[in-house]
Amino acid sequence: MPKIQDMTTWNLAEQVMQPVYIRLIDNLRKQLEQSDWKGTYEEFSKWAEEVSDETKARIALLQSELETASPEATTEIQATLAQLPSPYPGYALHLAQGDRQVTVDLWDLCYQICFRDYDSDLGVSRLDDGSPGTQAEVDRTLFEADTGEVDWNALDQKTQAIVAQVFANLPG
Q1: N or C: which end of the chain has fewer CB within 10 A?
Q2: What is the pLDDT of residue 5?
C-alpha cells in the first residue's frame, strides 16, 4: 500500500485511481490479444501486514458463526466484527504461456501509474536522486495544469508504458 501522509495527496489519488484502473485493464486486454500469453483475473481478500493470523482466524470464525446465528447473536457478532480490521480487495492477473506462469498484482501496477517514481517494496515515491522519499507522491503530470482534471492522454501514455514493461519483463 502506498504511504500517503496528507489529504491533498489522498484526494488527488482518489480522483485518478478509478480511471487508472480502467485504463490498466483495457491496456492489459489489448496487450494480451497481441501476445501468446493467456490471462485470467482473480479477486481476493488482502490484509494489512499488521493484522495477525490469530485476528484473521477470529474474524473467519465469527463470519462462519453468522451463518447460523440467532438474530440476537447476529447483532452481537456484527458489532464485534465492526471493531476488527477487515481486508481490502486485491486483484491479480495470472498470465500463462505453456508451462510458464506469472502473477501480476494489479493494484501495484495502478500505484506505479498513479504515483511518481513509485517504489512498490516501500510504498513511497523515489526522490530525484533515486533515494526513497517518505510518502507516495501523486504523478501530477496525469492532471491538466490549467483545470486540475485528469489528462487522459498522459494517463494513457503512462499506462501503455507500464503495461509494455510488464510484457517485456515476462520470461522468455
Answers
A1: C
A2: 85
